[in-house]
Amino acid sequence: LKKIAIIMGSKSDMQVMQAAADIISEFQVPYEVSIVSAHRTPHRMVTYAERAKEKNIGVIIAGAGGAAHLPGMVASLTDLPVIGVPVLSSNSLLGIDSILSILQMPGGIPVATVALNNAKNAGLLALRILSVSNEELYLRLSAYREKMKNEVEKSAAEIEKNINF
Amino acid sequence: LKKIAIIMGSKSDMQVMQAAADIISEFQVPYEVSIVSAHRTPHRMVTYAERAKEKNIGVIIAGAGGAAHLPGMVASLTDLPVIGVPVLSSNSLLGIDSILSILQMPGGIPVATVALNNAKNAGLLALRILSVSNEELYLRLSAYREKMKNEVEKSAAEIEKNINF
Amino acid sequence: LKKIAIIMGSKSDMQVMQAAADIISEFQVPYEVSIVSAHRTPHRMVTYAERAKEKNIGVIIAGAGGAAHLPGMVASLTDLPVIGVPVLSSNSLLGIDSILSILQMPGGIPVATVALNNAKNAGLLALRILSVSNEELYLRLSAYREKMKNEVEKSAAEIEKNINF
Amino acid sequence: LKKIAIIMGSKSDMQVMQAAADIISEFQVPYEVSIVSAHRTPHRMVTYAERAKEKNIGVIIAGAGGAAHLPGMVASLTDLPVIGVPVLSSNSLLGIDSILSILQMPGGIPVATVALNNAKNAGLLALRILSVSNEELYLRLSAYREKMKNEVEKSAAEIEKNINF
Amino acid sequence: LKKIAIIMGSKSDMQVMQAAADIISEFQVPYEVSIVSAHRTPHRMVTYAERAKEKNIGVIIAGAGGAAHLPGMVASLTDLPVIGVPVLSSNSLLGIDSILSILQMPGGIPVATVALNNAKNAGLLALRILSVSNEELYLRLSAYREKMKNEVEKSAAEIEKNINF
Amino acid sequence: LKKIAIIMGSKSDMQVMQAAADIISEFQVPYEVSIVSAHRTPHRMVTYAERAKEKNIGVIIAGAGGAAHLPGMVASLTDLPVIGVPVLSSNSLLGIDSILSILQMPGGIPVATVALNNAKNAGLLALRILSVSNEELYLRLSAYREKMKNEVEKSAAEIEKNINF
Amino acid sequence: LKKIAIIMGSKSDMQVMQAAADIISEFQVPYEVSIVSAHRTPHRMVTYAERAKEKNIGVIIAGAGGAAHLPGMVASLTDLPVIGVPVLSSNSLLGIDSILSILQMPGGIPVATVALNNAKNAGLLALRILSVSNEELYLRLSAYREKMKNEVEKSAAEIEKNINF
Amino acid sequence: LKKIAIIMGSKSDMQVMQAAADIISEFQVPYEVSIVSAHRTPHRMVTYAERAKEKNIGVIIAGAGGAAHLPGMVASLTDLPVIGVPVLSSNSLLGIDSILSILQMPGGIPVATVALNNAKNAGLLALRILSVSNEELYLRLSAYREKMKNEVEKSAAEIEKNINF
């Protein structure tokens, strides 16, 4: 199984990005985490992106806020699928700047954007991507989805019991 | 190699979604195209999404406009990676409605969102996903990226020659 | 008198949706409350929507946040009037994502959208809908509106008495 | 069967609101159309709204653009369900002003808002509302939804036949 | 000198609207304050607006939030100048709904809109309007503007003294 | 009767601002029109604003687009009421930049903002302001409003006659 | 005098960026123009930015649309002042994506952002920057500003002559 | 070396603008700070802007919130480069009003806009501008950028050490 890389522009993004590590960890898929800043370490970003494949990385998750250039730049430097997580940072315009800077990539260089601060979904998307060629992981993802369903049904049963007219 | 499915809410979306088929076709990867409407054919959508895997589909690209529910609903009914293409339709608010309806999925069900109307990038993202376990496709993607680079360098050379001070 | 169904995507939405139950309760109209998630329990959603009519439900109120697909999907699976309540959830873009995902339905499948978090108005709208064929309920709604008017006039009298120049 | 009233702020809105008349007409439900301007004929608006019920009107559809006050004001003057259609007018900010002026009603006075310019859905919503107490109309609505489904399936079949890899 | 009327949709708006009363009071111009709700007391609104002139009111300041119909409706029922104050209320979309509902009036019925929550400026605008025919009030407004200037210059002097390089 | 000044940032704004001149002209109130650019003629702006009162001007209407500083700056240089018209210019963000630059003035310096491109309403607002101390003008404004009402009623009668069910 | 570099993401941006070249040319300041794409030629971008200083470039103007990463990335690779021009491209959300991707840079790496499509102002800003150490250029900029003033005054005189009451 | 001027509309903006002073101070470049309000002290603004050059100021940084006219007006009164800092003030619409009022300047008068509240980047941009003709300052800026890089690499090393799979 290939590894998932989780990178982010600054240490403070870890608060949001931890959820990606957590869910991947729950599925026992190997991953690595690092800090790679498009603006403060552009050369490190180039090297990181270009060496990812040879390090057996299969998918890169990149989180960034504001004028979030990391996911798009990484996607420009590798052919691995890159997932972008818009991070809500201070003085960010609700995160709309982060979303648009990651989402609105020009034709030729795709970034798979997930919802604002939704590193958990970035992790799940990376797992779905790896499961395309890994039946066992696919089954674990199906079981996870089944579990979510059961939890909702349990809440539903409780609420239906408690609220009477 | 697995197939890529390209689905959309209505025939009129084909104008935008054709670009996904074109780029996938250029890479000679098998794909299928169909119309699946979340709102007008909800049962067809359920069946389509749930049978995708057994039809050897590896990635689903779903395009929709306005209150675009197709990508998110399909992602709720399968564990394959689902790519959402926000389509700019008439009376859509610049496409912001399409973007947010696809992007802002709750934790648990990821959709890989690409830029507004950018079906080409949806196709390229699907190819990157399949290439995670297909070295030959990965190399073709790298060649494609190299070709884009060469085209820009050619434009640059032309413009530098023509504009003098 | 038919029943009003109040459903929502997750237990946490109950905080907002309670106001719908409260106002309906105040009018002594029968209702039921449940959890139905478009994304985590799509089959439950299909069944719930398709069986609503035979359970003597007359109107369905559905609350959801973010990429809020529940109201629109339910409206696609029944011909009962469906009222959508955009819920402001965390990491939601002020609730604009919820509003647009519910409001901007394509031609053919209508959803009656109310203001952000305004479950009370969803309840009142459901009551107005049932009152179309129930004169007695209509009169109670008129009395309720009269009472609101009296309250404003009382505030006005107080403020006019207290603020002098 | 009660009548559906379709009103709008100015004659020019008829271009958009015609679709409501058309769909109601298709279902052979009685309706009336008029011009009622909140800003230029406030007294006419008061009278129209307050007399609607005695004219056997069951639902009021009100379309308006810009600072669209008509739907909300009518809902303040009657207890009939009122459906608001945000109309995109010139110098309107994409119709966002119309949407918010209609949607964001305070607690106590509900307006059932539909998508921008979507008078067709306003008509269908009015029909769903009347069908709550009219089984025959409900069945016709179900047949209409079935027909839409068939049309999508037909498009799907065509597209699947024509696009081969 | 004519009176200035300050009205608002609900008692809770007084927190914001007090600033209008305060500044008018500072200029010793007569004013009255009341609660007039477009949606809960539409008839009171009609009467209030139509009788304002005969009560010797010269300008009406109307504050409202969300789908803020009060300023525009009052302007439709009188020929006095009407100043609208968009009030930021809970579940309001940053106040953008209030702003657009007040600002985007159709041709024929003008509302003088001031900044979000800026009741102080509404008061000053009302005073400027009355001063068009009252030289003495005009001079007091000039003195007020002079005083603001002096305060800024004092701050400037302080900051220049304290910050040295 | 005092004069109304209509100024704008550039000659091209005249297309929009003409409507102010037209309506004022219709009421036979004296006015003057000029070009005053905050950014290209700041000294002219200072002089124009500061001399307006001595030229017997009673109200200033200022139209501008983009980062529209003219209305706010003029209001900072005089105590006359200033009406701002946000003009939609090319490369303007729907006119939202013009609206916010004019509307969101700080406490102390009020600008009476009207709807985007709505110079007609700016003219009517100026007339309402002058009519505060001019009964005859007030009556003409009432007659104008009455005429609008009659026109709507005429449209209504026509549409009611032509649309039958 | 140092040179001004004008770069852009693709040849099609030249339509907008030409205005920068034109104004710089009018001031007879040396400049060069090239195509440098952040996403399609990331290495070329690194080299271009890092070598700019040694090529005697004093200021870099970078134009880009959508998820516009070029200005920010260039500013990350040099210490020359970088001016960003948000370009309105197709499927761009009014250019808001371009603006925010360029403007909302994190602390440490500044980009001087100008208005949407306003390459002329980018050129003038570059000239102002060079004039900080070049008195003669400063005087030419003052003369240019004087000329603009004269043109407005001429328009004003014409309009004042032609519009009479 | 020329001085950098840091001005702002009110004392309360100092909280945000301090960061500009801090970073300039860190580079030991002379600067001055003052309060200049476009709306409350327009004449002071004219004088300040027009005398800046003779006071040996090389760059002006101007911060303002809401309808932020200070940066644009100052740029209209001098030919020095002017940097605008949009300040998030209370009742500001997320700061979007401040951003657009500063950014969307018309052709002819450029303002170098930085991110919301990002006075630090304004300071760095001013330093980059002065460094165009000061090699020593340029080298210090390069060292500063190098230091940022080292800090990120240190964070990266730490996080890589601590997070293991």
Concise structural overview:
The first copy, chain A, is of the alpha/beta class and 165 residues long.
Written overview of the protein:
8 copies of one chain form a homooctamer. With 165 residues, chain A is of the alpha/beta class. Chain A has 6 helices and 5 strands; from the N terminus they run βαβαβαβαβαα. Chain A has a 5-stranded parallel sheet with strand order 2-1-3-4-5. The longest helix of chain A has 28 residues. Chain A is globular and about 60 Å long. Chains in contact: A-B, A-C, A-G, A-H, B-C, B-D, B-G, C-D, C-E, D-E, D-F, E-F, E-H, F-G, F-H, G-H. At the A-B interface, β5, α5 and α6 of A face β5, α5 and α6 of B.
Spell out the key features of this protein.
homooctamer, 165 residues, alpha/beta, 5-stranded parallel beta sheet, globular
Describe the protein's topology.
Eight copies of one chain form a homooctamer.
Chain A: E1 3-8, H1 14-26, E2 31-35, H2 42-51, E3 57-65, H3 70-75, E4 82-87, H4 96-103, E5 112-113, H5 119-131, H6 135-162
Parallel strand pairs in A: 1-2, 1-3, 3-4, 4-5
Distance between the termini of chain A: 53 Å
Largest interface in this structure: A-B, 41 and 41 residues
Kindly provide the radius of gyration of chain A, computed on alpha-carbon positions and rounded to a whole number of angstroms: 17 Å
Strand proportion of chain A, as a percent range, falls in 15-25%
- The percent of residues in helical segments of chain A reads 40-55%
Order of helices and strands of chain A: EHEHEHEHEHH
Rounded mean pLDDT score of chain A? 96
Q: Main β-sheet of chain A: number of strands, strand sense, barrel status?
A: 5 strands, parallel
Shape of chain A: globular
Derived from helix and strand composition plus strand pairing, the structural class of chain A reads alpha/beta
Please provide the count of β strands of chain A.
Answer: 5
Assembly status: homooctamer
